[in-house]
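Objective 1b. Sequence-to-structure analysis of Isopenicillin-N N-acyltransferase like protein.
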Amino acid sequence: MTFPTFVSTELDPRARGKELGAARRAAVAANFAGYADLFAAAGARASRVRAWGERALDSSAAWAPRLAEEIAGIASGAGLEPWQVAVVNARTEILAAVDATGEGECSTSVVLPEDGEAPRTVQTWDWHDHLRDAPMLWELEPFPGHVVRTFTETGALAKIGVNTAGLGIHFNLLRHRSDHDAIGVPVHLIARRILDEAATVEEAAALARSATVSASTVITVVTARAAASIEISPAGVAVVPSGPDGVLQHCNHFLDPALAEEERHSSDRPTTYERLRHLNAHVTELSAADPTTRARAMLSHAPGSAPVCAHPDLTQPIHQRWETLATIALDLPAARLRVHRGGPCRVAEETWQVFQ
């Protein structure tokens, strides 16, 4: 069981988008339809979703014209309207706008070894189980000689990934009381610009601070010698560095003290704290050079323990069902991803899909 892959050959943003949209036409359309169903289940009218998609497109064009062109290209290739592909990229913002709540979401661990060896990273990616076929692996060259490889949802410009400048990112959802429905720059586009343009934590943080957002997220940035979680919200951006021991772990609540004062997950998703305690208790295994050992350290099921590895409750409506759809480790020296389709409970040496 592997995720589909696509390697872009076009350097021009619109042409690159059109190439992807044409090659994965059915998948882009299915992903938009899946999100339309999710938004409807969460209480959003179709006309409102369209308006939010159009606003996301405007926000994207103002902040990142090249990426807005790429979205338009994907739409053209897939036979959709640009606002529909913008909806896929702005799904975090739309869910914040409808004030969607529920358990689930991602857990991330990064360890910078004291001996200077490559960073050891791993994360679970939890999402709604009816969207389990949404992800893909995408390689692109946004600028000559600069390669980006990302695990993302088909039609979305980036999520978790690495670049050949030696930088990688993990991605977790956050919720903050400042989140609002005046759709700003989609956080998935911030992730993409970081992969396209940044080689350091400082450059990544500057890009995040330059965007006006309406929803919250955390992008954990890793380089050979540094790691920091860039917590993004409409109320501001905070950079949380790794500790003196080189350990940096993040789930779905703010770690910055000021931003944490207006935290939403403390009531909406209290298991985020249990998951972080699980990661803290397994630092030794999460420091291992072997990605399978790191992934297995994430194995924990509810009830009775932190649900790091999530399985859907099929008695719940689609917007309240969560599944660990992928387990992902970054290999910065090789600029590659190791991806397992599913949760840590099924990881084995032979189940890794290496994308390079």
